[in-house]
Amino acid sequence: MNFYNKRHVFIYDLVTDSAHRSFGYGEKLLSYIHNWAKVNGAAYVALESGIQRNEAHRFYEEKLDYDKWCYSFRKTLLVEK
Is the pLDDT of residue 3 over 60? Predict the structure, then answer.
């Protein structure tokens, strides 16, 4: 929780083995997380997904009604030894 983003649940990693995709496991897991978040007072559930993961984005947006609301940026720094 923080002042800007309110109380929320952030999913750091969600992976389904490619041999087990499209069997509803991801949807069931996320449904459980959504319900748990509601019971525990979260305003929303958030996650990040790699820019190249078009099928995952389609799943989140079309199947689960997630909104794409920002871009994440990062800069890789070279560590001097």
Answer: no
CATH number of residue 5's parent domain: 3.40.630.30
CB 1 within 8 A of CB 8: yes
Query: In total, how many domains does the chain have?
Result: 1
| Block residue for tokens 């929780």 | 1
**Residues 6 or more apart whose Cβ sits within 8 Å of residue 68:** 57, 61
Residue 33, domain extent: 1-81
Q: How confident is the model at residue 67 (pLDDT cuts 50, 70, 90)?
A: very high
Contact of 57 with 49, CB cutoff 8 Å = yes
Q: How far apart are CA 41 and CA 62, in angstroms?
A: 25
